Amino acid sequence: MTKGFPKGFLWGGAVAANQCEGAYNQDGKGLSTQDIAPKGIMGGVTEEPTKDNMKLIGIDFYHRYKEDIKLFAEMGFKVFRTSIAWSRIFPNGDDAKPNEKGLQFYDDLFDECLKYGMQPLVTISHYETPLALAKNYDGWVNRKLIGFFENYVRTIFARYKNKVKYWLTFNEINSVLNAPYMSGGIFTDKEKLTKQDLYQAIHHELVASAMAVKIGHEMIPGAKFGCMILGVPNYPLTPHPSDVMEAMKQDRENLYFADIHARGAYPKYMDRYFKDNNIKIHREPGDKEILKNTVDFISFSYYMSSCATADPKKKKNSKGNIISGVANPYLEASQWGWQIDPQGLRYILNLFYDRYEKPLFIVENGLGAVDELITDENGNKTVIDDYRIKYLNDHLVQVAEAIEDGVEIMGYTSWGCIDLVSATTAELRKRYGFIYVDRNDDGTGTLERYKKKSFNWYKEVISTNGESLIKK
Protein backbone atom coordinates (compact mmCIF):
# COMPACT_ATOMS: atom_id res chain seq x y z
CA MET A 1 0.00 0.00 0.00
CA THR A 2 1.05 3.56 -0.68
CA LYS A 3 -0.75 6.84 -0.36
CA GLY A 4 -0.46 10.36 -1.55
CA PHE A 5 -2.31 10.66 -4.85
CA PRO A 6 -4.86 13.46 -4.52
CA LYS A 7 -8.47 13.24 -5.57
CA GLY A 8 -8.80 14.33 -9.18
CA PHE A 9 -5.27 13.20 -10.08
CA LEU A 10 -5.09 13.00 -13.88
CA TRP A 11 -4.11 9.42 -14.75
CA GLY A 12 -3.62 8.61 -18.41
CA GLY A 13 -1.28 7.90 -21.28
CA ALA A 14 0.63 9.76 -23.96
CA VAL A 15 1.40 9.46 -27.68
CA ALA A 16 2.63 11.78 -30.44
CA ALA A 17 0.91 12.27 -33.78
CA ASN A 18 4.01 11.50 -35.85
CA GLN A 19 4.63 8.22 -34.03
CA CYS A 20 1.15 6.75 -34.23
CA GLU A 21 -1.17 8.43 -36.74
CA GLY A 22 0.29 7.36 -40.08
CA ALA A 23 -1.76 8.68 -43.03
CA TYR A 24 1.19 10.96 -43.78
CA ASN A 25 -0.17 12.13 -47.14
CA GLN A 26 -3.93 11.79 -46.68
CA ASP A 27 -6.70 14.38 -46.49
CA GLY A 28 -4.49 17.30 -47.42
CA LYS A 29 -1.68 16.74 -44.93
CA GLY A 30 1.67 18.20 -45.99
CA LEU A 31 5.03 16.56 -45.36
CA SER A 32 6.67 17.09 -41.98
CA THR A 33 10.29 16.81 -40.90
CA GLN A 34 9.48 13.30 -39.65
CA ASP A 35 8.34 12.05 -43.04
CA ILE A 36 11.87 12.10 -44.45
CA ALA A 37 13.63 10.83 -41.29
CA PRO A 38 13.24 7.03 -41.48
CA LYS A 39 15.88 6.13 -38.86
CA GLY A 40 14.77 8.29 -35.95
CA ILE A 41 16.01 11.43 -34.29
CA MET A 42 19.71 11.06 -35.07
CA GLY A 43 19.43 9.00 -38.25
CA GLY A 44 19.59 11.64 -40.97
CA VAL A 45 17.13 12.51 -43.71
CA THR A 46 16.18 11.33 -47.19
CA GLU A 47 15.15 13.32 -50.26
CA GLU A 48 11.59 11.99 -50.19
CA PRO A 49 9.52 9.71 -47.92
CA THR A 50 10.76 6.12 -48.20
CA LYS A 51 9.02 2.80 -47.63
CA ASP A 52 11.29 1.91 -44.71
CA ASN A 53 9.98 4.90 -42.72
CA MET A 54 7.72 3.20 -40.16
CA LYS A 55 6.08 6.50 -39.24
CA LEU A 56 4.37 6.85 -42.62
CA ILE A 57 1.88 4.24 -41.42
CA GLY A 58 2.67 4.26 -37.69
CA ILE A 59 0.02 2.15 -36.00
CA ASP A 60 -2.69 3.64 -38.26
CA PHE A 61 -4.15 5.59 -35.34
CA TYR A 62 -5.59 8.03 -37.90
CA HIS A 63 -8.10 5.39 -38.97
CA ARG A 64 -8.31 3.34 -35.76
CA TYR A 65 -8.43 6.00 -33.06
CA LYS A 66 -11.96 5.09 -31.99
CA GLU A 67 -11.04 1.55 -30.97
CA ASP A 68 -7.88 2.82 -29.27
CA ILE A 69 -9.68 5.53 -27.29
CA LYS A 70 -12.22 2.90 -26.22
CA LEU A 71 -9.37 0.75 -24.85
CA PHE A 72 -7.90 3.75 -23.02
CA ALA A 73 -11.34 4.42 -21.53
CA GLU A 74 -11.52 0.79 -20.41
CA MET A 75 -8.30 1.36 -18.46
CA GLY A 76 -9.96 4.39 -16.87
CA PHE A 77 -7.88 7.19 -18.40
CA LYS A 78 -8.82 10.61 -17.06
CA VAL A 79 -6.56 12.32 -19.61
CA PHE A 80 -5.04 11.46 -22.98
CA ARG A 81 -1.97 13.30 -24.16
CA THR A 82 -1.56 13.57 -27.91
CA SER A 83 -0.27 16.16 -30.37
CA ILE A 84 -1.55 18.00 -33.39
CA ALA A 85 0.44 17.50 -36.57
CA TRP A 86 1.12 21.10 -37.67
CA SER A 87 1.32 20.03 -41.33
CA ARG A 88 -2.19 18.52 -41.13
CA ILE A 89 -3.51 21.99 -40.33
CA PHE A 90 -1.11 24.09 -42.46
CA PRO A 91 0.45 21.70 -45.03
CA ASN A 92 3.38 24.04 -45.75
CA GLY A 93 3.35 25.94 -42.49
CA ASP A 94 3.03 29.32 -44.20
CA ASP A 95 -0.30 28.70 -45.96
CA ALA A 96 -2.91 31.45 -46.01
CA LYS A 97 -5.73 29.14 -44.99
CA PRO A 98 -5.86 25.97 -42.85
CA ASN A 99 -6.74 22.52 -44.14
CA GLU A 100 -10.32 21.82 -43.08
CA LYS A 101 -9.99 18.03 -43.23
CA GLY A 102 -7.06 18.20 -40.83
CA LEU A 103 -8.98 20.39 -38.42
CA GLN A 104 -11.96 18.03 -38.60
CA PHE A 105 -9.83 14.99 -37.72
CA TYR A 106 -8.81 16.51 -34.40
CA ASP A 107 -12.39 17.64 -33.77
CA ASP A 108 -13.44 14.02 -34.12
CA LEU A 109 -10.54 12.74 -32.00
CA PHE A 110 -11.21 15.15 -29.13
CA ASP A 111 -14.95 14.43 -29.30
CA GLU A 112 -14.17 10.73 -28.94
CA CYS A 113 -12.05 11.42 -25.85
CA LEU A 114 -14.70 13.63 -24.27
CA LYS A 115 -17.38 11.01 -24.95
CA TYR A 116 -15.64 8.86 -22.33
CA GLY A 117 -14.96 11.73 -19.93
CA MET A 118 -11.29 11.80 -20.96
CA GLN A 119 -9.62 15.22 -21.13
CA PRO A 120 -7.30 15.83 -24.11
CA LEU A 121 -3.86 17.14 -23.16
CA VAL A 122 -2.60 18.57 -26.44
CA THR A 123 0.98 19.27 -27.48
CA ILE A 124 1.02 21.98 -30.13
CA SER A 125 4.41 21.06 -31.63
CA HIS A 126 5.78 17.57 -30.98
CA TYR A 127 8.90 16.91 -33.06
CA GLU A 128 7.30 17.65 -36.40
CA THR A 129 7.70 20.96 -38.16
CA PRO A 130 6.14 21.31 -41.62
CA LEU A 131 8.94 20.25 -43.97
CA ALA A 132 8.55 23.36 -46.12
CA LEU A 133 9.35 25.55 -43.10
CA ALA A 134 12.51 23.52 -42.48
CA LYS A 135 13.68 23.63 -46.10
CA ASN A 136 12.64 27.17 -47.02
CA TYR A 137 13.34 29.00 -43.75
CA ASP A 138 15.80 26.71 -41.89
CA GLY A 139 13.17 26.17 -39.22
CA TRP A 140 13.34 28.18 -36.02
CA VAL A 141 16.62 29.84 -37.02
CA ASN A 142 14.34 32.18 -38.96
CA ARG A 143 12.27 34.62 -36.91
CA LYS A 144 9.44 34.39 -39.44
CA LEU A 145 8.46 31.09 -37.83
CA ILE A 146 7.11 33.02 -34.84
CA GLY A 147 4.45 34.52 -37.11
CA PHE A 148 3.62 31.20 -38.75
CA PHE A 149 3.36 29.57 -35.32
CA GLU A 150 1.12 32.38 -34.07
CA ASN A 151 -1.23 31.82 -37.01
CA TYR A 152 -1.26 28.10 -36.25
CA VAL A 153 -2.00 28.47 -32.54
CA ARG A 154 -4.71 31.06 -33.09
CA THR A 155 -6.35 28.66 -35.55
CA ILE A 156 -6.34 25.65 -33.24
CA PHE A 157 -7.25 27.64 -30.12
CA ALA A 158 -10.28 29.09 -31.90
CA ARG A 159 -11.30 25.68 -33.20
CA TYR A 160 -10.84 23.61 -30.04
CA LYS A 161 -11.41 26.14 -27.26
CA ASN A 162 -14.50 24.29 -26.07
CA LYS A 163 -12.84 20.86 -26.20
CA VAL A 164 -9.27 21.21 -24.90
CA LYS A 165 -8.37 22.80 -21.58
CA TYR A 166 -4.81 21.48 -21.15
CA TRP A 167 -2.16 22.59 -23.66
CA LEU A 168 1.62 22.15 -24.02
CA THR A 169 3.61 24.35 -26.37
CA PHE A 170 6.77 22.50 -27.54
CA ASN A 171 7.60 18.91 -26.71
CA GLU A 172 10.93 18.51 -24.86
CA ILE A 173 11.93 21.99 -26.00
CA ASN A 174 15.45 21.63 -24.55
CA SER A 175 16.13 18.66 -26.85
CA VAL A 176 16.89 21.18 -29.62
CA LEU A 177 20.41 21.32 -28.14
CA ASN A 178 21.02 17.73 -29.27
CA ALA A 179 18.46 17.24 -32.04
CA PRO A 180 18.11 20.58 -33.86
CA TYR A 181 16.44 19.08 -36.93
CA MET A 182 13.83 17.01 -35.13
CA SER A 183 13.18 19.44 -32.31
CA GLY A 184 13.63 22.76 -34.09
CA GLY A 185 13.03 22.00 -37.75
CA ILE A 186 16.55 23.28 -38.44
CA PHE A 187 17.64 22.00 -41.85
CA THR A 188 21.27 23.07 -41.53
CA ASP A 189 23.41 20.02 -40.75
CA LYS A 190 24.00 19.69 -37.01
CA GLU A 191 27.79 19.63 -37.48
CA LYS A 192 27.66 22.91 -39.44
CA LEU A 193 25.15 24.68 -37.22
CA THR A 194 26.80 27.46 -35.23
CA LYS A 195 26.05 28.05 -31.56
CA GLN A 196 24.99 31.56 -32.52
CA ASP A 197 22.30 30.25 -34.88
CA LEU A 198 21.24 27.50 -32.49
CA TYR A 199 20.68 29.82 -29.55
CA GLN A 200 19.01 32.39 -31.78
CA ALA A 201 16.61 29.64 -32.90
CA ILE A 202 16.00 28.75 -29.24
CA HIS A 203 15.18 32.40 -28.52
CA HIS A 204 12.62 32.38 -31.33
CA GLU A 205 11.02 29.21 -29.95
CA LEU A 206 10.90 30.63 -26.43
CA VAL A 207 9.25 33.83 -27.66
CA ALA A 208 6.77 31.77 -29.69
CA SER A 209 6.01 29.59 -26.68
CA ALA A 210 5.35 32.59 -24.42
CA MET A 211 3.25 34.17 -27.17
CA ALA A 212 1.16 31.00 -27.38
CA VAL A 213 0.59 31.15 -23.61
CA LYS A 214 -0.46 34.82 -23.88
CA ILE A 215 -2.83 34.14 -26.77
CA GLY A 216 -4.20 31.04 -25.07
CA HIS A 217 -5.02 32.90 -21.88
CA GLU A 218 -6.82 35.53 -23.93
CA MET A 219 -8.73 33.14 -26.17
CA ILE A 220 -9.46 30.31 -23.71
CA PRO A 221 -9.61 31.91 -20.24
CA GLY A 222 -10.32 28.67 -18.37
CA ALA A 223 -7.57 26.63 -19.98
CA LYS A 224 -4.14 25.77 -18.55
CA PHE A 225 -0.93 26.15 -20.56
CA GLY A 226 2.34 24.42 -19.81
CA CYS A 227 5.84 23.99 -21.14
CA MET A 228 7.40 20.56 -21.66
CA ILE A 229 10.97 19.76 -20.68
CA LEU A 230 13.13 16.70 -21.27
CA GLY A 231 13.94 15.86 -17.66
CA VAL A 232 17.32 14.26 -16.94
CA PRO A 233 18.77 15.06 -13.51
CA ASN A 234 22.56 15.04 -13.39
CA TYR A 235 24.36 13.58 -10.37
CA PRO A 236 28.07 14.30 -9.79
CA LEU A 237 29.95 11.07 -10.51
CA THR A 238 32.10 11.65 -7.40
CA PRO A 239 32.07 14.18 -4.50
CA HIS A 240 34.97 16.00 -6.17
CA PRO A 241 34.01 19.69 -6.37
CA SER A 242 34.81 19.75 -10.09
CA ASP A 243 32.27 16.96 -10.66
CA VAL A 244 29.68 18.83 -8.60
CA MET A 245 30.26 21.96 -10.68
CA GLU A 246 30.03 19.93 -13.90
CA ALA A 247 26.67 18.48 -12.77
CA MET A 248 25.41 22.00 -12.04
CA LYS A 249 26.57 23.16 -15.45
CA GLN A 250 24.84 20.29 -17.26
CA ASP A 251 21.64 20.78 -15.26
CA ARG A 252 21.59 24.44 -16.22
CA GLU A 253 21.76 23.57 -19.92
CA ASN A 254 18.29 22.06 -19.53
CA LEU A 255 16.92 24.16 -16.67
CA TYR A 256 17.31 27.45 -18.48
CA PHE A 257 14.41 26.52 -20.77
CA ALA A 258 12.17 25.91 -17.76
CA ASP A 259 13.55 29.00 -16.00
CA ILE A 260 12.38 31.24 -18.84
CA HIS A 261 8.98 29.55 -19.13
CA ALA A 262 8.35 29.70 -15.38
CA ARG A 263 10.06 32.96 -14.40
CA GLY A 264 9.54 35.01 -17.54
CA ALA A 265 13.13 36.11 -18.18
CA TYR A 266 16.55 34.78 -19.10
CA PRO A 267 18.45 33.56 -16.00
CA LYS A 268 21.59 35.51 -15.16
CA TYR A 269 23.86 32.46 -15.47
CA MET A 270 23.22 32.48 -19.24
CA ASP A 271 24.95 35.87 -19.51
CA ARG A 272 28.30 34.24 -18.85
CA TYR A 273 27.57 31.30 -21.16
CA PHE A 274 26.73 33.67 -24.00
CA LYS A 275 29.80 35.79 -23.27
CA ASP A 276 32.15 32.79 -23.09
CA ASN A 277 30.80 31.40 -26.38
CA ASN A 278 30.59 34.75 -28.19
CA ILE A 279 26.82 34.43 -28.62
CA LYS A 280 24.82 37.63 -29.11
CA ILE A 281 21.08 37.00 -29.04
CA HIS A 282 19.17 39.41 -31.26
CA ARG A 283 16.02 40.52 -29.47
CA GLU A 284 13.25 42.47 -31.13
CA PRO A 285 11.42 45.20 -29.20
CA GLY A 286 8.68 43.51 -27.22
CA ASP A 287 10.43 40.17 -26.77
CA LYS A 288 11.20 40.90 -23.13
CA GLU A 289 7.53 41.66 -22.42
CA ILE A 290 6.29 38.57 -24.29
CA LEU A 291 8.56 36.28 -22.25
CA LYS A 292 6.82 37.50 -19.08
CA ASN A 293 3.79 35.40 -20.07
CA THR A 294 4.69 32.47 -17.85
CA VAL A 295 3.20 28.99 -17.93
CA ASP A 296 0.53 27.72 -15.54
CA PHE A 297 2.34 24.44 -14.97
CA ILE A 298 5.53 22.62 -15.92
CA SER A 299 5.36 19.27 -17.63
CA PHE A 300 8.28 17.01 -18.37
CA SER A 301 9.42 13.60 -19.52
CA TYR A 302 11.43 11.33 -17.27
CA TYR A 303 13.09 8.10 -18.31
CA MET A 304 16.51 8.16 -16.67
CA SER A 305 19.09 10.12 -14.73
CA SER A 306 22.71 10.69 -15.67
CA CYS A 307 26.07 11.39 -14.07
CA ALA A 308 28.49 14.21 -14.75
CA THR A 309 32.24 14.41 -14.37
CA ALA A 310 34.95 16.92 -15.19
CA ASP A 311 37.45 14.08 -15.70
CA PRO A 312 37.74 13.39 -19.45
CA LYS A 313 39.10 9.88 -18.72
CA LYS A 314 35.81 8.91 -17.04
CA LYS A 315 33.45 10.33 -19.61
CA LYS A 316 32.15 7.01 -20.86
CA ASN A 317 28.69 7.80 -22.10
CA SER A 318 25.59 5.79 -21.32
CA LYS A 319 22.76 5.71 -23.85
CA GLY A 320 19.76 7.87 -23.27
CA ASN A 321 16.69 9.71 -24.46
CA ILE A 322 18.43 12.12 -26.89
CA ILE A 323 20.61 13.40 -24.05
CA SER A 324 23.26 10.97 -22.86
CA GLY A 325 25.75 11.24 -20.01
CA VAL A 326 28.12 9.27 -17.84
CA ALA A 327 26.89 5.87 -16.64
CA ASN A 328 25.94 5.53 -12.98
CA PRO A 329 27.69 2.44 -11.53
CA TYR A 330 24.82 1.88 -9.07
CA LEU A 331 22.03 1.55 -11.63
CA GLU A 332 20.79 -1.15 -13.99
CA ALA A 333 19.83 -0.35 -17.57
CA SER A 334 17.03 -1.21 -19.99
CA GLN A 335 17.51 -3.24 -23.19
CA TRP A 336 18.32 0.04 -24.92
CA GLY A 337 20.91 1.04 -22.34
CA TRP A 338 18.78 3.65 -20.57
CA GLN A 339 19.60 3.56 -16.88
CA ILE A 340 16.65 2.84 -14.59
CA ASP A 341 16.37 5.21 -11.64
CA PRO A 342 12.92 5.49 -9.99
CA GLN A 343 14.27 7.70 -7.19
CA GLY A 344 15.51 10.11 -9.82
CA LEU A 345 11.88 10.90 -10.60
CA ARG A 346 11.21 11.88 -7.00
CA TYR A 347 14.42 13.93 -7.06
CA ILE A 348 13.54 15.88 -10.20
CA LEU A 349 9.98 16.48 -9.00
CA ASN A 350 11.37 18.07 -5.85
CA LEU A 351 14.00 19.96 -7.84
CA PHE A 352 11.41 21.51 -10.18
CA TYR A 353 8.94 22.31 -7.39
CA ASP A 354 11.56 23.84 -5.10
CA ARG A 355 12.76 25.98 -7.99
CA TYR A 356 9.43 27.13 -9.46
CA GLU A 357 6.59 26.40 -6.99
CA LYS A 358 4.29 25.70 -9.91
CA PRO A 359 2.17 22.56 -10.44
CA LEU A 360 4.01 19.75 -12.22
CA PHE A 361 2.74 17.19 -14.72
CA ILE A 362 4.65 14.01 -15.60
CA VAL A 363 3.65 13.61 -19.24
CA GLU A 364 6.12 10.91 -20.30
CA ASN A 365 7.57 7.96 -18.41
CA GLY A 366 7.85 4.33 -19.45
CA LEU A 367 9.96 1.35 -20.40
CA GLY A 368 10.85 0.51 -23.98
CA ALA A 369 11.35 -3.24 -24.34
CA VAL A 370 11.09 -6.15 -26.76
CA ASP A 371 7.75 -7.83 -26.02
CA GLU A 372 6.80 -11.38 -26.92
CA LEU A 373 3.21 -11.95 -28.01
CA ILE A 374 1.97 -15.29 -26.66
CA THR A 375 -1.32 -17.19 -26.41
CA ASP A 376 -2.47 -17.71 -22.81
CA GLU A 377 -4.38 -20.66 -21.34
CA ASN A 378 -7.69 -19.05 -22.36
CA GLY A 379 -6.61 -18.74 -25.97
CA ASN A 380 -6.09 -14.97 -25.79
CA LYS A 381 -3.06 -13.31 -27.28
CA THR A 382 -1.18 -11.22 -24.74
CA VAL A 383 2.24 -10.16 -23.43
CA ILE A 384 3.44 -11.05 -19.94
CA ASP A 385 5.29 -7.79 -19.32
CA ASP A 386 6.11 -8.05 -15.62
CA TYR A 387 9.28 -6.02 -16.30
CA ARG A 388 7.15 -3.08 -17.43
CA ILE A 389 4.83 -3.41 -14.45
CA LYS A 390 7.82 -3.35 -12.09
CA TYR A 391 9.34 -0.31 -13.81
CA LEU A 392 6.10 1.69 -13.70
CA ASN A 393 5.19 0.56 -10.19
CA ASP A 394 8.57 1.61 -8.81
CA HIS A 395 8.41 5.01 -10.50
CA LEU A 396 4.84 5.69 -9.38
CA VAL A 397 5.76 4.82 -5.79
CA GLN A 398 8.36 7.59 -6.01
CA VAL A 399 5.71 9.97 -7.39
CA ALA A 400 3.64 9.22 -4.30
CA GLU A 401 6.69 9.94 -2.16
CA ALA A 402 7.16 13.29 -3.91
CA ILE A 403 3.54 14.19 -3.19
CA GLU A 404 4.19 13.35 0.46
CA ASP A 405 7.24 15.64 0.21
CA GLY A 406 4.82 18.46 -0.59
CA VAL A 407 5.20 18.56 -4.38
CA GLU A 408 2.04 19.58 -6.27
CA ILE A 409 1.55 17.11 -9.12
CA MET A 410 -1.38 17.36 -11.53
CA GLY A 411 -1.13 13.98 -13.20
CA TYR A 412 0.82 11.22 -14.89
CA THR A 413 0.62 10.04 -18.50
CA SER A 414 2.62 6.93 -19.27
CA TRP A 415 4.52 7.20 -22.54
CA GLY A 416 3.39 5.11 -25.47
CA CYS A 417 0.26 3.79 -23.74
CA ILE A 418 -0.24 1.87 -26.95
CA ASP A 419 2.77 0.57 -28.92
CA LEU A 420 4.04 3.12 -31.43
CA VAL A 421 7.11 3.92 -33.51
CA SER A 422 10.09 4.98 -31.39
CA ALA A 423 11.24 8.59 -31.79
CA THR A 424 14.91 7.88 -31.18
CA THR A 425 15.30 4.67 -33.22
CA ALA A 426 12.16 4.58 -35.46
CA GLU A 427 11.65 0.96 -34.42
CA LEU A 428 8.40 -0.73 -33.46
CA ARG A 429 10.12 -3.53 -31.59
CA LYS A 430 10.95 -0.99 -28.89
CA ARG A 431 7.54 -1.16 -27.27
CA TYR A 432 6.16 0.90 -24.40
CA GLY A 433 2.45 0.21 -24.46
CA PHE A 434 -0.18 -1.46 -22.34
CA ILE A 435 -1.61 -2.49 -25.71
CA TYR A 436 0.36 -4.58 -28.19
CA VAL A 437 0.08 -3.57 -31.85
CA ASP A 438 0.75 -6.33 -34.37
CA ARG A 439 3.20 -4.53 -36.60
CA ASN A 440 6.87 -5.32 -37.11
CA ASP A 441 9.91 -3.37 -38.23
CA ASP A 442 9.82 -5.03 -41.64
CA GLY A 443 6.32 -3.63 -42.16
CA THR A 444 4.50 -6.93 -41.67
CA GLY A 445 1.62 -7.44 -39.27
CA THR A 446 -2.14 -7.12 -39.03
CA LEU A 447 -2.22 -3.94 -36.90
CA GLU A 448 -4.53 -5.79 -34.52
CA ARG A 449 -4.52 -4.66 -30.89
CA TYR A 450 -3.99 -7.00 -27.90
CA LYS A 451 -4.06 -6.20 -24.19
CA LYS A 452 -0.82 -6.89 -22.31
CA LYS A 453 -0.71 -7.98 -18.68
CA SER A 454 0.14 -4.38 -17.78
CA PHE A 455 -3.24 -3.27 -19.20
CA ASN A 456 -5.21 -4.64 -16.25
CA TRP A 457 -2.44 -3.67 -13.82
CA TYR A 458 -2.68 0.00 -14.85
CA LYS A 459 -6.47 -0.20 -14.85
CA GLU A 460 -6.31 -1.21 -11.18
CA VAL A 461 -3.78 1.52 -10.36
CA ILE A 462 -6.17 4.12 -11.79
CA SER A 463 -9.32 2.67 -10.20
CA THR A 464 -7.65 2.65 -6.76
CA ASN A 465 -5.99 6.06 -7.31
CA GLY A 466 -2.60 4.48 -6.72
CA GLU A 467 -3.47 2.45 -3.64
CA SER A 468 -2.76 -0.83 -5.46
CA LEU A 469 0.91 0.09 -5.96
CA ILE A 470 3.41 -2.15 -4.21
CA LYS A 471 5.71 -0.16 -1.96
CA LYS A 472 8.83 -2.00 -0.85
What tags apply to this protein structure?
glycosidase, two-stranded parallel sheet, TIM Barrel, 472 residues, 14 strands, GH_1_N_CS, 6-phospho-beta-glucosidase, single chain, alpha/beta, 8-stranded parallel barrel, beta-glucosidase activity
Report what the structure shows.
The protein has 472 residues and is of the alpha/beta class. It has one domain (10-463): Glycosidases (TIM Barrel). It is 37% helix and 14% strand. It contains 14 helices and 14 strands. A hairpin with a 5-residue loop joins strand 10 (374-375) and strand 11. The longest helix has 25 residues, at 195-219. It is globular, with a radius of gyration of 21 Å. The relative contact order is 0.14.
Distance N to C terminus: 9 Å
CATH C-level label:
Alpha Beta
Major sheet strand order: 1-2-3-4-5-7-9-12
* Succession of helices and strands: EHHEHHEHHEHHEEHHHEEHEEEHEEEH
| Alpha-beta classification | alpha/beta
**What's the overall geometry?**
globular
Query: What fraction of residues sit in β-strands?
Result: 5-15%
C-alpha-based Rg, rounded: 21 Å
By CATH, the topology is: TIM Barrel
Count of domains: 1
Overall CATH architecture: Alpha-Beta Barrel
Low-confidence stretches: none
Number of helices: 14
What do the pLDDT scores average to? 95
Largest sheet: 8 strands, parallel, barrel
How many strands appear in the DSSP assignment?
A: 14
Which percent range fits the helix content?
Answer: 25-40%
